[in-house]
Amino acid sequence: MDHAAHAAMGHGDMDHGGHGGMDDMCSMSSAGDGKMLFTWDTKNLCIVFRQWHIRSTAGLVFSLIAVVFLAMGYEALRALSRSYEASINKRVLSVPRQSQGQVSKRGHVVKSVFYGLQNFYAFMLM
To answer: Transmembrane region positions (predicted)?
Structure first.
């Protein structure tokens, strides 16, 4: 169906969600061969999600600071995971041999959850 027929059906002046036009779309800087390039462009950049849309220099600076804090949160999660693993290892060694398997199993479940969270967080940061 061509555009004229679409307009004739009564959809010509219908609001399609207020997308803001082509000038307000997220752009992606690339080298033309699919590789992403670093950019300081402050217009129409999207970080992580389309909703994290940068439209100004202040927005870019705020976003850079937010990404640093997100990375700090990831490192804090890794430190917490290592600390938990060390405490579980001490606890396993301190209980009688018959109970070590039970404590170890619970520890492995929690360590698995930490591992899953770390991977999710890492992929989100990429």
So the answer is: 58-77
